[in-house]
């Protein structure tokens, strides 16, 4: 019974993903397959980092907008001179 790459990845995920790319090389897995696994891992990391960068930028821009819009409302934000009024 042969197992597909997807099944191997699912099994590795369920078992905690203990294997590393180096383990594949040491176990004699085809270097081309190791290269493909590494490229897929790099792609997933790039996508995740890119997504998180965009989300962080949106949060920062939203915070700036909220602070600038709320600066005139004493009930939400105070400027330095208004805090004691």
UniProtKB/TrEMBL annotation:
Source organism of this protein record: Arabidopsis lyrata subsp. lyrata
Protein name listed in UniProt: Uncharacterized protein
GO cellular component: GINS complex
Gene3D superfamilies referenced in this protein's UniProt entry, alphabetically: 1.20.58.1030
PANTHER family according to UniProt: DNA REPLICATION COMPLEX GINS PROTEIN SLD5, SLD5 PROTEIN
InterPro entries per the UniProt record, alphabetical: GINS_bundle-like_dom_sf (IPR036224), GINS_Sld5 (IPR008591)
Gene Ontology biological process terms, A to Z: DNA-templated DNA replication; double-strand break repair via break-induced replication
């Amino acid at each position: 019974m042969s197992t597909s790459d997807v099944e191997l990845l699912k099994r590795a995920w369920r078992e905690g993903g203990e294997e590393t790319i180096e383990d594949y090389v040491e176990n004699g897995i085809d270097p081309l397959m190791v290269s493909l696994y590494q490229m897929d891992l790099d792609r997933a990391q790039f996508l995740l980092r890119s997504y998180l960068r965009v989300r962080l930028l949106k949060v920062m821009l939203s915070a700036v907008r909220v602070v600038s819009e709320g600066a005139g409302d004493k009930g939400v934000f105070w400027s330095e001179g208004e805090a004691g009024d």
